[in-house]
Design goal:
With 604 residues, the protein is α/β, with parallel strands linked by helices. The chain is built from 21 helices and 23 strands. The chain is globular.
Length: 604
């Protein structure tokens, strides 16, 4: 039986794959006990903090002597469920330089900016060494599972579209702030992961941290081409970045080939650090190599870039990124680039800036079937059961009190609550998952949607998942045309003029290629008809919700949205197109970009 220390933080850097996998088997087998132990450790370390004293002041003697059940019950009864807003005043003080034990006993010296694409506002959460260590651990665990199925050669390369945004010091407090991915890419653990998996990114840190994502993407692609025979994996944090990068490739391949031919980097790359780092790999003209790549690109262009990955990176074994949840819509394009089944898509782990949650232990599963096994040492997890279909409310209302990990039931939907080593206690993450089974005693979760991404006008409730389904159904009608759906978002327009009684859903589509107006009208009606939520159907029939509106926006509109978020501090690496938005700046961009509007005729 593993001792408590191993349960907390397995020394991933020193372990071989077998030891790591063995450790995980044991932790999964004892998931319930490991969770109680994790909670005990978090509380023992942090009982003296201002936050916990407020709620657990009466147990000043410590929690050491308590049994697991007693401890979990005390914690759940004394410490309230909380949201980011509840922690914000504490985090603000930390950002301002308050080094007293506010949330954690050890001072927090770094803050992470979560992507903030949910409500349009990046939010700070604490980041500690534990955050980087758990990242290393879950990446190592994933790599160990993947290498059994898709082995790669030691010393191979990963063409990795990763981007680090600028780290900065908080005004007044001097605390190092940046996105969690940026902190990780500059950490020792990022280096350790490369050494221990013997797989190295094509790009040096200067490219990853270049600060301008278009220039970084160009350099990632260029270095990827130069190292094309060593590349055995193509990856990114979220699938979106890979699709973006290959869209850039479609536009820039001639420039990239010219750079290789002349041995000279394009003048469009203006960052001196990036230029210097890339120049080392681009020492001499390579006309033969360039012409080989060029020929392949010409052929690929004729095929609409189908199979770009296997053609240009013939040794690529798999494509790796988060492909679940809001990333599912990009998998179609990714499969296209991957040549259908030629290079399999492997979906990465499930986590958040706040904490890692679970690993994908079946890398061979397609993204649509991926589940995540909770790692019980990363945080103390609770699960708020949601009312399900049988209660006719589609998981929107909370049914009961949170249950601990050992209390979850297969087939039920839950909102995740986290208590972390980084100072978040009973923190509602806002993600909704379904328990699909167990790996030993650790629950397996399917990610469903972010709870606050919901289209709602009156009694209707459609989630991100419902929207995704409706869009997918409707976009199927485009298959006969030359158009494809590039990206989409939505808005519940309840801002109705006096005298009008109906709000309605507005869905924005960006297309590549042309589709006849008639087809788009059909798409609009199909989307409206595809929302099966009873509240919506009834409201549409009674006309208390107006016809769904499809707005087609100009090419580049969604890129502008991404740039808007990046300009506000979000990182490209963590960017997720908000599938439903009320953000005024984003709505302005969408309005400006609108080129065509259609209203559904689905309900007559
Ligand atoms: P961030 O705030 O940038 O750290 O983003 C974290 C959020 O991204 C999570 O709370 C999820 O909503 C989403 N996410 C992360 N990993 C996955 C995954 N594997 N599948 C689906 N959604 C994910």
């Amino acid at each position: 039986m593993a001792g408590g220390d191993e349960w907390r933080a397995f020394a991933a850097e020193d372990a071989d794959d077998a030891a790591l996998l063995g450790w995980f088997e044991e932790v999964a087998e004892n998931a319930g006990a490991v969770q109680a132990e994790t909670l005990r450790r978090i509380l023992e370390a942090n009982l003296g903090t201002e936050y916990l004293r407020r709620w657990l002041g009466g147990v000043a003697d410590g929690v050491g002597g308590m049994g697991a059940a007693e401890l979990e019950a005390l914690f759940a009864s004394a410490v309230p469920l909380a949201s980011h807003a509840d922690f914000e005043p504490y985090i603000r003080r930390i950002a301002g330089g308050d080094a007293s034990p506010v949330l954690t006993a050890d001072p927090i010296t770094m803050l992470s900016l979560s992507s903030g694409t949910t409500d349009g506002r990046p939010k700070y959460v604490p980041f500690t060494r534990f955050s980087s260590q758990s990242t290393l651990q879950i990446f190592r665990l994933a790599a160990a599972r993947i290498s059994r199925i898709f082995p790669t050669k030691p010393g191979s390369r990963i063409l990795e579209f990763i981007y680090s945004s600028k780290q900065f010091r908080t005004p007044g407090g001097g605390i190092l702030a940046g996105t969690a991915t940026s902190h990780y890419f500059s950490s020792e653990e990022f280096q350790t992961k490369q050494r221990s998996t013997k797989c190295f990114p094509c790009s040096p840190y200067e490219v990853i941290a270049g600060g301008d994502y278009q220039q970084s993407t160009y350099c990632h692609l260029l270095l990827g081409l130069l190292l094309r025979h060593d590349v055995e994996c193509v990856g990114s944090t979220f699938a979106y970045s890979i699709v973006q990068a290959f869209a850039a490739f479609e536009a820039k391949w001639e420039d990239l080939c010219a750079d290789i031919e002349q041995g000279k980097l394009s003048a469009e790359i203006t960052s001196p650090e990036m230029r210097k780092a890339v120049a080392e790999h681009l020492r001499q003209p390579e006309p033969v190599f360039a012409s080989e790549v060029k020929k392949k690109c010409e052929k690929l262009k004729e095929l609409g870039w189908f199979g770009l990955i296997p053609e240009l990176w013939p040794n690529a074994k798999y494509v790796y990124a988060i492909m679940t949840g809001s990333m599912i819509p990009y998998t179609k394009k990714l499969r296209h680039y991957a040549g259908g089944e030629a290079v399999p898509l492997v979906s990465a782990a499930y986590g958040s800036t706040e904490s890692w949650i679970g690993a994908n232990l079946e890398p061979e599963n397609p993204p649509e079937k991926v589940t995540f096994t909770v790692i019980p040492t990363f945080a103390y997890f609770e699960f708020i059961p949601l009312l399900d279909e049988r209660d006719d409310k589609k998981g929107i209302l909370e049914a009961e009190q949170p249950v601990p990990l050992a209390g979850v039931v297969v087939g039920r939907q839950y909102e995740i609550v986290l208590t972390t080593f980084t100072g978040l206690y009973r923190y509602r993450l806002g993600d909704v998952v379904e328990v699909t089974g167990f790996y030993k005693r650790a629950p397996r979760l399917a990610f469903l949607y972010r709870k606050n991404l919901i289209l709602m006008v009156n009694i209707d409730k459609n989630t991100e998942w419902d929207l995704q389904q409706a869009v997918e159904t409707a976009a199927g009608l485009l298959s006969e045309t030359g158009a494809e759906l590039v990206d989409f978002t939505s808005h519940a327009d309840v801002d109705v003029a006096a005298g009008e009684c109906t709000g309605h859903y507005v869905v924005y589509w960006e297309l590549k290629g042309d589709a006849a107006e008639g087809v788009l009208k059909e798409c609009c009606a199909a989307m409206d008809a595809a929302f099966a939520d009873q509240g919506y159907v009834v409201s549409r029939r009674t006309r208390s919700i107006g016809p769904l509106e499809l707005r087609v926006v100009a090419a580049g509109t969604f890129r502008e949205i991404m740039e808007h978020y990046v300009g506000n501090g979000a990182a490209v690496s963590q960017f997720k197109t908000p599938r439903c938005t009320t953000n005024e700046a984003v709505l302005r961009i969408l309005d400006r970009g609108t080129i065509k509007r259609f209203w559904s005729t689905a309900y007559g």
